[in-house]
Each structure stands twice: as C-alpha cells, then as structure tokens.
Specification:
The chain is α+β, with helices and mostly antiparallel strands. The chain has 2 domains: about 1-105, Homeodomain-like (Arc Repressor Mutant, subunit A, Orthogonal Bundle), CATH 1.10.10; about 130-285, Multidrug-efflux Transporter 1 Regulator Bmrr, Chain A (Alpha-Beta Barrel), CATH 3.20.80. Helices cover about 40% and strands about 20% of the residues. The chain has helices at about 1-15, 25-30, 35-45, 50-70, 75-80, 85-95, 100-105, 155-170, 170-180, 235-255; strands at about 130-135, 140-150, 185-195, 200-205, 220, 225-235, 265-270, 280-285. An 8-stranded antiparallel sheet has the order 1-6-8-7-3-4-2-5. β3 and β4 form a beta hairpin. α2 crosses α3. The model has no long low-confidence stretch (mean pLDDT about 90).
Length: about 290
C-alpha cells in the first residue's frame, strides 16, 4: 500500500499549497519519487496530468469565491495564479463553459472538480500474467520526439500520431532490420521528463547491439535492473491502458517492490496491433 499512501500524501500537499507556485518536483518529493515517475504514475491512475489537476482545483475554488464573495474578479484571478483577467477568463471558460462575470450573476452551471482520493482494487479478480527477469544493461535504438505536457496535450493521441508517421515514412521497417537482442519487437518508451519546460521525451525503438547507428536514429542505454514483465493479448488501444491501471492499482499495492525510476517499456510483438490476438508486453523496472 506504500504507493497509495505516497500518492495521497502528495495530493494533500497539492491541496494545502494550491495558492502557491509549486512545481512537480516539490509535489513528487512528498511521494519520494522522481518528477518523471510521479507524473507518469499520476496520469496512469487519474487520466490527467498533475498540472491539469492543479488547474481544475484552482478554477473550482475560484468559481466558489466568485459565487460566494464580493471579491473583485481581477483579485480572484491573481489569487489563483493568473497574471491577467483575460488569461483567467479564458481558462475559466474552458473549464466551466461560461465567463467569470456570468458565474457571478448565477447564469449557467459550473463544473466542480473535487479533491482526489486515490483508491485501489486489491481483489485481484482478473489474473495478471507476468514473469520476472534480471538483465544487465542493454541498448535500444530508435527515433525520439519531445512533447509538451500542457493542458491541451492528449498523450494517447499524440503518441499514436507519432507511430503512424513513422510507419508511413518507412522508419518502422528500418528499425525492425536493426532488431537483434532478447526483445524481439518494437518498443515504445518515455525515456525522460524535463520539468523546466514541462516536456517528455518519447522513443520508438528496438533492442540493438549495433555500434553503428544510422543517421537520424538515437541510442539509449537501459540500466542493469530487475524487470517485471506483464503480458496482454488483444487490441493495443484497449488492453494496454487497462493493464497499466492494473499494474499501479493492483500489482504494486499487493507486492513489496517499488518502481526503480528507470523507463518502463511497452513491447509490441505482433504486426497488427488492432488484432484480437495481438501480443503486448509491459516491462516495469523494479527494486
């Protein structure tokens, strides 16, 4: 249950410091996690980023003040982190579907996002297929792209676009020709998160021991570690998000392992990811 308690402690910290300019690093420290790993875990369990959660909660509180106090709209905007009334109004309308002025007049309905409570399912009704493996460090080779993790960022949509782009351009075939190692198949992995500009680096790759890397490709060294390898069968878009949620809401709370902080891997071994028999593995580094 340590992961649940750690996440809940981080949420309590966010709630206590909503009016302050806190960073993901500050929040992740409450859970004793790296910024990247905390952000990744939070998104898997809640389907929103840390930044979006903070925005929703601040705008919920701001709406409450608009309707229950006589404070000026400009003062409320500044209080909840907006430098101009225009930026506050734009964000307010995006969440609530009406302007701050209309909210004050009681026109229309508001959207209330309440404080999060992390809950887990420890029943284990659905069996999880996995095995464990210890490996020395190994190299993956592929293409990477940076994504801005702002409030408009749709991770699933953007990563699917990236994969489609690589497939149409012939890069996937090029990578498969370089594939030699214990992992036979394509790998998708978020290899870094940069807090200073709120960007993540995502890589489509294969395991390859080749020393000569073709132009346009990058190599990344995965550290020596113990891996828990979970298996799933079915259309990737259906089974992978479900399996990630199971890993964090059922497997981790039921076991004594922690995520090591190294990148996790999604391994695709079937040529047709939409097939009902498509095989996918999720490799999670643990300690």
């Amino acid at each position: 249950m340590a992961i649940v308690e750690a996440l809940q402690k981080a949420i309590e910290y966010m709630e206590a410091h909503l009016l302050e300019d806190i960073t993901i690093k500050d929040i992740a420290a409450q859970a004793h996690m790296s910024s990247y790993h905390f952000q990744r875990t939070f998104v898997i369990l809640t389907d929103i980023t840390v930044g979006e959660y903070l925005r929703r909660r601040r705008l919920t509180k701001a709406a409450h003040e608009l309707c229950n106090t006589n404070a000026k709209i400009i003062d409320i905007a500044y209080k909840y982190g907006y430098q101009t009334p225009e930026s506050f109004s734009k964000a307010f309308q995006r969440q609530h579907g009406l302007t701050p002025s209309d909210a004050r007049k009681g026109i229309g309905n508001l959207q209330s996002y309440n404080r999060l409570t992390i809950q887990v399912n420890l029943k284990g009704v659905e069996p999880m297929k996995y095995h464990m493996m210890e490996r020395d460090d190994f190299q993956i080779v592929g293409v990477k792209e940076s994504f801005e993790c702002n409030e408009t960022f749709d991770q699933s949509k953007e990563i699917n676009r990236f994969w489609s782009q690589l497939g149409q351009g012939g890069t996937i075939d090029q990578l498969l020709r370089l594939n030699h190692g214990e992992i036979a198949g394509l790998i998708g992995a978020t290899i870094a998160y940069h807090e200073e500009n709120d960007q993540m680096e995502y890589m489509v790759a294969v395991e390859s021991s080749s020393g000569d890397i073709p132009d346009g490709l990058f190599k990344y060294e995965l550290p020596s570690t113990k891996w828990v390898i979970f298996e799933a069968a079915g259309p990737v878009m259906d089974v992978v998000p479900k399996l990630w949620k199971q890993i964090y809401s059922e497997w981790f709370p039921s076991n004594d392992y922690e995520h090591s902080g190294a990148p996790s891997l999604e391994v695709y071994t079937s040529p047709d990811p939409t097939s009902s028999t498509a095989k996918t593995e999720i490799w999670v580094p643990v300690k």
